[in-house]
Structures are given as structure tokens and as C-alpha cells.
Amino acid sequence: MEELLERLLEECRPFTSMGKVADYIPELAKSDPDALGVYVIGSEGKHSWAGDCRKSFTLQSVVKPILLLQALLDNGPEVVQSQVGVEATGKPFDAINAGDRTLDSRHINPMVNMGAIVMCTLIRGGNYAERFQRLLELTGRLAGDPEIGVDEAVYRSEKSHGSKNRALAYLLKSYGLLEDDVEAVLDCYFRACSIRVDCRGLAHIGAVLSNRGRLPDSNERIFPASLARYVNAILMTCGMYNGSGEFAIRVGIPAKSGVAGGIMAVVPTRMGIGIYGPALDHKGNSLAGIQLLERLSRELYLSIF
Ligand code: GLN
To answer: CA 141: distance to chain centroid?
Structure first.
């Protein structure tokens, strides 16, 4: 496995120069565009890696499946689905999914910004600090990292350049889809996006989802298998935003990308994969990262189709 990962990494490194690091959050523009790393945790517990997999970065949208999971754990699928739909939008992650008619909650899903912002309001807790703390604890368990924390510089950068997300949140509020104080909800969302991980952490999250809710080392169950099915299904159809259909054809596994360059991928019953490659394609997905996953999927017959 290590040899295969090394070979694919070298094959894919040239693709990093074809992408662009995100700069709409100024702090993210400081990332090294040439970085590329991959980490795999197999169902038998074996860890394999190659490249820049020790570099840390922020989860960004990779936190969306965790927000969804926390909302599902706290409310159950029926309540969550009554608040945010499950159909792909076919639009960019920060699109305003409203036309000239009322914004319909069925037209958004938890993998786009509007849906993820609503997920923050479904986390249980006395106040937003408490809610975020619970989310951070769940993220730490999923990532196998008890020391997990927030990158304060990225958080401040997101918060001070968050006009688009503010617009999305106020729109939700104006349509009655968000009741709480918008700034408090957004603060939770910005913090969630700014949680720091590395490729190993992403692979660990993927491994728990592939193991249907059980931790890879101890086999301890941390959420019901039915919720893993819910999350993995939405990752498959919506996880790569408006690139999800093409990704399903090219790679064929549930995955979630983030604008810091991370991709967390789930191969049900077989492995979790963490990728880091901050140079993005025009849809906001790691360009070299998708190339790498495509090759890995072909070599190991990972596609579920
Ligand atoms: N924090 C980013 C945003 O809200 C997350 C987007 C992403 O990773 N696609 O814009």
C-alpha cells in the first residue's frame, strides 16, 4: 500500500500547479499550493500514508458531515429532514438557493453552506459556546485526536470576511428557516470550519463512517449504523457540491471536500481516506486530490458502482 501511495502521489504532484488556493478567506491564501498528502486507514486497522500528510489545515466544509451527524444524534432524522432537504442542489456551495419564490428548505441540503448553517441551530446546548464545544468533542472522537482545536487566525479571517455567509444566514432568517440570533449561529459555523486537522484525522473520520459508526481501533460504537448510512448517502450525492456527479463517475465513493484543500473519503466496510492538496479546481475541490483519489479508486477497485 505505501508503495502504491508513493507512486500515485508522485504521479499527481504536477496537478497541484493547475489549481489555485482559496483566497476569499485571506488566511487560506497562505497555504502552500504544491502540498499534497494522502493517508489511509484500512478496516483491519493498518495505517498507510505518503507525502505532506503531517501538515495541518482547517476542516472548512469537511465539518459539514460532522455538523449533520451531531444534528442527527441530537434530533433524529425526521426532525433534521424537516429542516433541511437531502437533494443535490447542482449549485456551488455558497449559492443562494432561492429564486423569486419563497426559499424552500427542501431545496437545500446539509452539504451546502445554507444547510450547514441551519445544522448549527440543531445542535443541543444551553448557548452557542456549549453547542460548539459538543461539536468539537464529537469531531475529536471522530478524528481520533483528543487535542483537536480551532485555528484562531483562520477563524478571525473567516469571521471578518464572511459577508456572503452572513447574506445566506439572513436570507434563511427572512424566510423563517433560522430562528436564533444570526451572529451567534454564524460564529458557531465559522468556528466549526476553522477546526484544525491533518490527513490522518480525515482518514480516521472516514474510517469511522466506513465502519458504520465504530472506532477503527477499539471497535467502540460512537453512533448508530443507520446514521452512518444517512451521512454516507448524502456524501455520495452532495459531498463534492456541483462536482458530485462527475466525482461519482470518476471515483465512486462517498467523500467531502473543503476549501482548505482537504478531502475526507469513505470506502464502506473497507477504508477511510484523508487527502490534503490546497490547490483547488474552479468548483472548490482539491484538484490534485481528486486525481489521486481517481487513480487510487481504479487501482484498488474502490468504486461502489
Ligand atoms: N468556511 C467556508 C465557507 O463558508 C467553507 C466552504 C467550503 O469549504 N467549501 O465559505
So the answer is: 15
